[in-house]
Structure formats: C-alpha cells, structure tokens
Amino acid sequence: MLQDRPYMRDGYERRQTSVVTWLLSSIAAVFVLQNVFSRWLHIDLEWGFGLSLPGLREGHVWTLLTYGFLHSTGNLLQVIAYLLVIYFFGREVLPVLGTRRFIAFYAAALAVGGAFWLAVHWRHPGLLLGASAAVSALVILYSCFYPNREITLLLFFILPVTLKPKYLAYAMIAFDLFGFAFYELLGAVSPFDAAHSAHLGGMAVGWIYYRYLHDSDWSFASGRADIELPRWMRRQGAAKQAKAAPTYSVDMSDRGHLRAEIDRILDKINSHGFGSLSADEKRVLDEARDLISRR
Is 142 inside a domain boundary? Predict the structure, then answer.
C-alpha cells in the first residue's frame, strides 16, 4: 500500500515558505505593478503609498511602511541590489531572530528610518521611496552578530571583494554620516541620490535591537500576580507547580543522548529563533560547548 510508505503520508509537517521569500516576492511584484500602472494606466502609486509630509498630514500613516516596497520605476539596478542584500543577509539573520521578530524588526526599521527622514526634511517636503532603511538595518544587525565572518561582495556587480562585516558597517556609517552632514542638513541634493537620514535611522534600529532587545523576553506576562494569595493557597500552588514542572536535565556523559538533545535545540532555533529557548536549553548549549572545547 502506498499509504504505508512515510513519504506518501499527509501527516508530516510541510516546509513553510520563508518570510524572506515572501518579502522578496512582494518587492518584485510591487515594482512590476508600479511600471504597469505608470506606463500604461498613467496612475502613480507613489503618491498614495510613498512617504511624504503632505500625505502623512492627510492621515496616510500606512505610508511609514508601504514606502519600503516602492522604488523608482527607472532604476532597476537599485531594486536588484536591494533584493540581493535582503536575500543574503536576511536569510542569515532570520534563523537567529525567528519569523515574528524578523517581521517586527523589518517594520521598525522602515518606520524609524522614515520618521527620521521626515524630521530632517520637515521644511523641504519630498517623497521617500525604497527599502534602503530596512536594508541598512539588516546589514548592521548581521555585522553585530557576525563581525569577523568574512564575506565576498561583488563591487559594481563585477569586482569580487572579501571583507569582514564590521568593516562594511563602519564604511556604511561613515558614508551616510558624511552625506547627512554635508548635504541633507544643509538642504542640498545628495549627489549619491541616497536618503542618508533614512539609512541612519535603520542602522540605529539594527544596533539598538542587538544591544538592548535581542536577549530580552518578548512575552507580555509580568510574572507577578496583581493580588497576593493567602499563605495556604501559595503553598498548595507551589506544590502543584513543582509537581507539574519537573527539573529539566540532560545526561552530559551520554554522547548519543546529548547529540539528540543538541539537534532538537538547533531545530528549535532554526524554526523559532534563539529567543524561543528556555533558560535550561541555553544552559545545555553552554555546557555542550564547554565540553567540546575541553576535548
């Protein structure tokens, strides 16, 4: 019987499409729609979904996020560059953050980058398009996670250059600080055709997340009761909790048991991010790392 074979059953867990894949597909699809609407239907999506001060004053708050999916219709090379950065850096960051944190991080980078750009251009209204703020945030976060891992980049899509991510981050920060100080603050048009303030806002989100938020617990439970229970109820509740939650332990001397446990924890990190691990699971990882280093 075919149903007796494991690969013919429907009960296994199917691999879900990565949020990075959905993100890349969305940006590419919106770029195609922009060209169709502007070239053949003569409708500009930019003024309804791009970020601008007049639009925000009219209540278009969604543009703080939607502008990141719109790009200049005549600059295909820029869109390709953004897609490549999101693909290569996003797929490395996603297993560490998990899907929900990745979406929140990407949205926060767009919103903060757009808000910083609006603050700088308050007296010089314009229109902001592009995913550059979120792209900058991804590069900075990757550089924080893996500062010394060597990567190879194609300079101008031709010349391969190998460098460490931390040096790439330093170069990006210096470049945007220069453009921000000597062009945007003075109200001049940047010759690099870049929204330096939006880039700096996205970079700030990447660094703040790594420095203050990555290892924090995102659950909304406070862990403390608003009403103090009587002493006899507290004793009974503590006894039940101790009985229901046995102590988590792993036999570190059994290599097979330890390897299976490490594989389970790594699968959990790959599916839900490092932040989903419990304190005991983190302890097991640390002890296993120390055990391997001593060999």
Answer: yes
Q: What is the pLDDT of residues 255-273, one digit of tens each?
A: 666 777 777 887 777 766 7
The answer to whether position 265 is within a domain reads yes
Task: Count up the domains in the chain and report the number.
Answer: 2
Task: Assign residue 78 a region (left: φ > 0; alpha: ψ between -120 and 50; beta: otherwise).
Answer: alpha
Same domain assignment for residues 201 and 273: no
For residue 207, the domain's CATH number is 1.20.1540.10
Task: Assess if residue 225 is contained within a domain.
Answer: no
Print the domain residue range for 269: 235-293
Encode pLDDT of 43-99 as tens digits.
Answer: 888 888 999 999 999 999 999 999 999 999 888 999 999 999 999 999 999 999 999
Cβ 207 vs Cβ 118: under 8 Å: no
Cα 177 to Cα 180: distance, rounded to the nearest angstrom: 5
Q: Tokens for 188?
A: 């001049």
The pTM of this model reads 0.71
| CA 67 and chain centroid, separation | 17
